[in-house]
Amino acid sequence: MTTTTEQLSATTLLRFATAGSVDDGKSTLVGRLLHDSKSVLEDQLEAVERVSQDRGQDTPDLALLTDGLRAEREQGITIDVAYRYFATARRRFILADTPGHVQYTRNMVTGASTADLAVVLVDARNGVIEQTRRHAAVAALLRVPHVVLAVNKMDLVGYRETVFAKIAEEFTAYASELGVPEITAIPISALAGDNVVEPSANMDWYGGPTVLEHLETVPVSHDLTACPARFPVQYVIRPQTAEHPDYRGYAGQIASGVLRVGEAVTVLPSGRTSTIEGIDALGESVDIAWAPQSVTVRLKDDIDISRGDLIAPSASAPATTQDVVATVCHVADQPLAVGARVLLKHTTRTVKAIVKEIPSRLTLDDLSQHPAPGQLVANDIGRVVVRTAEPLALDAYADSRRTGSFLLIDPADGTTLAAGMAGESFASQARTTVQADEEGWDF
């Protein structure tokens, strides 16, 4: 008989993030998903029931299953990104429950940066609002391949199909213009459990999947081997022992692609070339290794290689540059201004840099560009040009989410300032450019 562990190891993994505006019922949806899929321990449920009773509530407040911080429980809001791990017979899940407040939009960037799917909640009574557009923009910017629009609180609008259809049409048109490749709209009531895990008896006009059914069946591809090989060096291993007097290996995790013994490679940013002489994985020599394995690579030639260098096949090595053009989501409280001196962290490499230009800031209402804003403040999405002190081997984010992304860091205290995506983005496809008036206002 197949054991539960063996069954789970055979299932695929889906990483997904939830996002929604304040009081859209996002935490309730996550709690309902965990509760109805039997993914909640008895003691957790008892604790939620006890707190709910103390508050005078007749039924358990399932939002408490995810709002774990004391401040979250007291205020009834989500502040931090809460990660939850659960599984069904068909798939394993890593869920990132992200905050809905505008000032915590940066946390959505954290939760969605590795997600295969994003669930965007909308209150059926309010429809698509600015924060909904912001979440759609972040999902598109981070190249999340699947987006679910969960139109919540359908019970408060009489389960009317017309309400759902109008919201679904507006959101789909907006997200499609951003370049989101797949959008699935599902009408739900997280509080009542309609279409979350079980089909709703109140919406017989809806013939699509429940939220859980869609999560279990959406196609997911983690095939990092289809991309060109990229190997950021984390550590240089030189034992210099009697047993290994001449051993020199370069340890790290393969970010993408496949490495093979005998393959010609280029070390960046120096541009020096060599051949892979050996690959060590888990204490044994292997002929081939692929992402995301952690390995040690040995080269035929002695080359000056250190942490932060990138090893790539010579036939598909990326170009190096000191002028990084990218779209960033500003995540710090302090503004990011033209002329700012920052650190740029790309894979295992960190270099000094200067913000040379901020060409535009995205206006979420109509996807237009506000030119030359001068600075970006918390939660702004904009284009930047950064000049680095040393060359970087960046891929376009559209080609690789791992080697096309970077962080801008405050050199004074190590605060993360912005999350960046190199190359073109949906922002370059915006409809119009807003011309600023003499005082810099845009309307």
Euclidean distance between termini CA atoms? 66 Å
Share in helix: 10-25%
Which structural class do the helices and strands define? Answer: alpha+beta
Number of strands: 25
| Unreliable stretches | 1-10, 69-79, 427-443
Q: What is the 3D shape?
A: globular
Strand content: 25-35%
Oligomeric nature of the chains: single chain
Q: Largest sheet, described in full? A: 8 strands, antiparallel
Overall radius of gyration: 24 Å
Roughly what is the average pLDDT, rounded to an integer?
84
Instruction: Please give the count of helices.
Output: 8
Descriptive notes:
The protein is of the alpha+beta class and 443 residues long. The protein has 8 helices and 25 strands. The chain has helices at 4-10, 26-36, 42-54, 70-75, 105-112, 130-141, 161-178, 211-217; strands spanning 12-20, 82-87, 91-97, 117-123, 146-152, 183-187, 231-232, 235-237, 249-253, 258-260, 264-268, 272-281, 284-286, 288-290, 294-299, 310-313, 321-330, 336-337, 341-346, 349-363, 368-371, 375-376, 381-392, 405-409, 416-422. Strands 7, 8, 9, 11, 12, 13, 15 and 16 form an 8-stranded antiparallel beta sheet that branches. A 6-stranded mixed beta sheet has the order 2-3-1-4-5-6, with helices on both faces. Strand 4, helix 6 and strand 5 (146-152) form a beta-alpha-beta unit. Helix 6 crosses helix 7. The chain is globular and about 75 Å long.
